[in-house]
Amino acid sequence: MSRYDTQDIIYALATPWGRSGLAVIRISGEGCRASLSPFFSSPTALIEAKNATLVHGYLLDEGNARIDEVVLAINTRGHGYTMEEAIEISCHGSIAVIQAILSLLGRIGMRSAEAGEFTFRAFIHGRLDLTQAEAVEELISSVSQSSRSLSLSRLEGRLRERIDELKESLLTLLAAVEVQLDYSEDELDEFVFPRHALATLIESIGSLADTYQIGRLYKSGAKVVLAGSTNVGKSSLFNLLLKEERSIVSPYRGTTRDYIEADLEVGGIPIRLYDTAGLRESEDLVEQEGIVRTERLIGEADLIIYLVDSTDLGHIPAEDGRTLVVYNKSDLVRPAADTLAISAQSGEGVDRLLKAVEDRLKRSLPDIGEGDLVIEGERQWRLLEGAKGALVRALELSDSVDVLDVVAVELAEALTNLGELTGEVRSDDILDRIFSGFCVGK
Fold it and tell me: Into how many domains does the chain fold?
């Protein structure tokens, strides 16, 4: 973390590059108001502004020429996102204006912020723990409403609170073991190891770790492939699901030569949907390459929607965990009652298909209730699994009084893993890996 010099005054554009009505430029660091005041039309108002107040005026260059009319949002030390003295400049969203302001800030001695540096400062000043810092990036990168909601829950501190509860239970267990090790047997009553409490703790940590499957699905989504023979209606279904004409639909076989992909959301799960070339024997070299790509996608898919033409039943694959057989053209021929039938022309049965897709993608996930805590980060999952593994080893050793010192070591290792989760135990390489993935300005 050597590039994160916390003594510097840093700045960054917090809104995307591009023309817009307004843009926001963030500044953080002790003395930032004093540094900016000579280049503001009301320097005294800026210097004397109270916390959480707005100051209106003009930014000026070194020659006292106006750059732009701005509103400055002021945070004094101990407040705001970074807990440092900070300014947020709201300016007009012209590229020329933004470039002029950023250039001015660099010339007057401020430093352009590194990726994630504002959130890093919020972390080191105690405003956020590591789980909340990670939730900031997860919230920014969320692509579904479910992922957004889960990330916001972690940002509010619910994961930190849960980890604190687990650590408190673990500390109680460790204290009991340490007391037994520190005093001779004749000074204490007969020691009964709290196996039930340890088993309960293992179950609680394991349940939290298992929610990673859910968080990963809502964050990364699923790859869903439309497959089947030529002219079974894959492109028509693709267009119907997207509610736009993306794929070319024609009565000629082999129209789709290469796959087309698009994003949608099904039951809160972000989906990457692929329309693919029809599977058949072909002498056409271009079509053959399309079929090879289709087969590759099928191998990589989380779920395959295999369409069958109800008017011309050909090869029908067996359903398995990754394959959902769907009978299209139900408006022409009614398939058997126990089959999943749709009409890509009329839209009949598509709601049922989407529910089946949602159920299939969620089938192997652990059950959670509405509002339950879910983790999303691999780092969090690994640390929880590490803590759980140490506690399982401690439980296996707990029957023998002769190895209580080893049990204490395992309990301490579990505590270290939980401490790393929230950032109480940390190293520079861990922090660098987390914050370097953030966008500049956050």
Answer: 3
